[in-house]
Every structure is written in structure tokens, then in C-alpha cells.
């Protein structure tokens, strides 16, 4: 992975799997950079320390993705999705729960799972996002939490919506592209197989359970009527 990181940064081609892994790391580091930029901007308001702590918490999963450089395995990726869930719940709780300006971040486990692009992780991310939403609702109902003032709420809402939409959009494109490429590869493989069985010199028949001919490939012997 570390050799592929060098190739990625220098523009050299690398194996598709490793290139996809590096895209995941770059996406996470980009997310962390956005959170730190937002944190620095809010220092000029000045913002409540709980708000700054919430943004710092949301930057940590981004930096945690560096672990994939040293060990990119299913357990590590699963742990990363859980990490997104924990810190997203912390950030949303610190800023007012489901009624707060960072409420959209309850879905960050699902967004991160989409970026990781594995079916089992997407299911886990969806479940954890739902759990985060329920926790955020209970926090808001319970009361006694800090709510940002109007100015803080505006900037936090802007930051959360922009980063979420941008992050999901950037993360979804490679996932859709890879699925499209797999579908194209499957279609090409089917076309090659059909060409082979059609052009071979023997006759290949496919029958249904009643003995009727479903399809025929190749050349029929002289005098044999398949109709």
C-alpha cells in the first residue's frame, strides 16, 4: 500500500484495488481538512468550546483512515465505520441533537460505507446511521443540552450540509463507476462465450425439462431439422 501511495501521488498507474483504497484515504483526509478549516473559521466568532470539540471529533475518523495505509483489511474498514458512528453521535449530541445544526451528520456512517464501497459495510453503515438518529432524537427529547446561537447555527448548518453533500457525491461516483465497469465486463464475457459456442464446428443443444429444444449453437449436421 505504501508503494502504491507513492505511485498515486506521482501519477503512476497501480493495481485497481490499491488505487481504490488510496481514493478512500484521500477522501477521508479531505473530510478531515474541511473540518479543521471550519474549526479555524469558527474561532473568529468566537464559538462555544463544545462546538469546536464537535468539529474536532468529526475530523478524527478522517485521520484514522491513515491506518489503511499499513493494514487494509475488512476488520479495519469495519472498525472505521464504527468510528464514524461514535464520533458522529458525539458531534451531533454536543450541538443540540436532532434539532441541532449538525443533525445531518447522523448519516455519516452510511456515507463513509458508500465510500468504502463494500456491500456488508453499507448495510452496517445504514444500521449505525439509524441508531445515531435514534440517539439524537432521545438527546433532544431529554433536554439539558447546549444549543448553538443563531450565528453559530447558521455556519454549522452550512458546513454540515455542504460537507455531507459534497462528500457523498464524490464518494458515490467511483462506486457507481466500478459497478458499471463490472457490468460491462460481464457483458463482454457473455459476448465472447456466445461467439465461441456459435462458431464452434459441433452442435450444442439446450433442452428444457420436457425435452424440448430451447437453444442451439454451432453447426447442425446435414439433414437435421431443428425447427
Question: Could you list some keywords that capture this structure?
Answer:
mainly alpha, elongated, single chain, 227 residues, two-stranded antiparallel ribbon, 70% helix, 8 helices
Structure description:
It is built from 8 helices and 2 strands. It has 227 residues and is mainly alpha-helical. It has one domain. The chain starts with a helix and ends in a 9-residue tail after the last strand. The relative contact order is 0.10. About 6% of the residues have low confidence.
Give the topology string: H per helix, E per strand. HHHHHHHHEE
**Based on helices, strands and strand pairing, what is the structural class?**
mainly alpha
Number of domains: 1
- As a whole number of angstroms, the C-alpha radius of gyration is 26 Å
Record field, number of beta strands: 2
Q: Stretches where pLDDT falls below 50 for ≥5 residues?
A: 4-16
Strand content: under 5%
Mean pLDDT: 84
Considering DSSP H and I runs of 4 or more, what fraction of the residues is helical? over 70%
What is the straight-line distance between the termini?
58 Å
- Strand order, biggest sheet? 1-2
> Rough shape?
elongated
Amino acid at each position: 500500500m505504501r508503494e502504491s501511495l507513492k505511485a498515486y501521488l506521482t501519477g503512476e498507474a497501480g493495481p485497481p484495488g490499491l488505487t481504490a483504497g488510496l481514493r478512500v484515504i484521500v477522501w477521508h483526509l479531505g473530510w478531515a481538512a474541511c473540518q479543521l478549516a471550519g474549526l479555524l473559521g469558527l474561532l473568529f466568532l468566537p464559538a462555544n468550546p463544545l462546538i469546536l470539540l464537535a468539529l474536532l471529533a468529526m475530523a478524527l475518523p478522517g485521520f484514522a483512515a491513515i491506518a489503511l495505509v499499513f493494514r487494509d483489511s475488512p476488520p479495519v474498514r469495519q472498525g472505521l465505520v464504527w468510528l464514524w458512528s461514535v464520533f458522529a453521535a458525539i458531534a451531533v449530541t454536543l450541538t443540540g441533537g436532532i434539532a441541532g445544526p449538525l443533525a445531518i451528520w447522523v448519516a455519516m456512517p452510511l456515507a463513509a460505507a458508500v465510500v468504502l464501497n463494500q456491500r456488508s459495510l453499507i448495510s452496517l453503515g445504514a444500521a449505525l446511521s439509524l441508531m445515531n438518529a435514534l440517539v439524537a432524537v432521545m438527546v433532544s427529547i431529554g433536554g439539558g443540552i447546549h444549543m448553538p446561537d443563531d450565528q453559530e447555527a447558521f455556519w454549522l448548518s452550512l458546513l454540515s450540509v455542504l460537507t455531507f453533500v459534497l462528500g457523498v457525491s464524490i464518494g458515490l461516483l467511483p462506486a457507481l463507476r466500478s459497478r458499471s465497469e463490472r457490468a460491462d465486463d460481464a457483458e463482454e464475457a457473455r459476448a465472447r462465450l456466445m461467439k465461441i459456442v456459435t462458431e464452434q464446428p459441433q452442435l450444442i443443444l439446450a433442452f428444457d425439462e420436457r425435452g424440448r429444444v430451447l437453444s442451439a449453437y454451432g453447426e447442425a449436421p446435414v439433414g437435421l431439422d431443428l425447427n
